[in-house]
Amino acid sequence: MTTPGLWKKSSYSGSGDGNACVEVAPCHPRVAIRDSKSPTCGTLTVPGPAFAAFVDALKKPQGHPK
User: Fold this and answer.
1) DSSP 50
2) How many helices (H) and strands (E) does the chain have?
3) Which of 28, 34, 38, 63 is least enclosed by beta carbons within 10 angstroms?
4) What angle do CA 55, 41, 10 make, to 5 degrees?
């Protein structure tokens, strides 16, 4: 596994107190995730397809299991 390089924060995080968000970075074949408030405290990595499924599930309206 390679070390993540380019970290990306959600566009929903905004500025100021909105900086309390997670950041993600590609780390082929996985995706790295860290806390933007404490970026040096640790990183979680998950398989790319699992992360994509997680994001897709978040995009679905509640109450619609499709």
Assistant:
1) H
2) 1, 4
3) 63
4) 30
